[in-house]
Amino acid sequence: MESSESVTLYGWFRSSCSWRVRIALAWKGIKYENIPVSLQKGQQHSQEFLAKNPLGQVPALCIDGFVLTQSVAILEYLEETRPNNPLLPKEPKSRAQVRRIVETIVSGIQPHQNLPGLDIPPGTPDEWKLAWSKEWAQMHIKKGFAALEQMLKESPGKYCVGDQVSLADVCLLPQVYNAKMLHVDLTPYPNIVRNNEELIKLEAFKSSHPRSQPDWVDEGHGINQEV
Q: Where in this chain does the record put each GST N-terminal domain (predicted)?
């Protein structure tokens, strides 16, 4: 199903979930309007945005006359309605391998980077919150990357699953960026590093990079354009 209606993405430059959707839109050649929603400024809690996503989370994609939220649901919808430049293999085993990697990242790793998900007692000083959240995130990234490294060994190729770019790659690149931002040593994960280096060569992955977004702000993390 194709639609001539305009497509609008509400997201934030540094949001992993928003970045995944930007990659898929670019990969499939879908033109869209990018409307920034600053999580730092709390714009996700505005009445205007809550009308689009009552959870107050980015991304939200206005497409085909309705609003779709949750990055994986958006990715699956784009794949089903815009089958050009597919992001899922045809063979069932490979599709399952792709979805396994996707779930490992979006459910097993990325949520642990979010401060609201941590059970930190009220009144804890901000510097303690940040220190604990960083340590917590690093621990779960390392655990998740160890699992991902093994999965990549089981599906050798240029990208995460064989030689075809897939939803697994769409999710991997933003997660590696987050790992670097948190100063995680990637030396133990050579397959992840190799795949990441291949992905950032692709235009859809480069153009969707946080630095290329209209709301980009240099936060001083020392992360280069090449993630």
A: 5-86
- The count of structural domains within the chain is 2
**Cα–Cα distance for residue pair 182/175, rounded to 1 Å:** 11
Neighbour order of strands in the sheet with 33-36: 33-36, 8-11, 60-63, 66-69
103: nearest Cα among 148, 57, 157: 148
Whether residue 192 is found in the same domain as residue 110: yes
List the one residue out of 192, 175, 199, 51 whose CA is nearest residue 112: 175
Domain of residue 12: give its range: 8-81
- The sign of the CA dihedral 141, 142, 144, 148 is positive
Can you tell me which residue has the tokens 């990234």?
A: 141
Give residue-wise pLDDT tens across range 111-163: 766 645 445 556 666 665 566 567 778 888 999 999 999 999 998 899 999 99
Cβ–Cβ under 8 Å, residues 80 and 145: no
Last residue of a domain, one of 49, 81, 113: 81
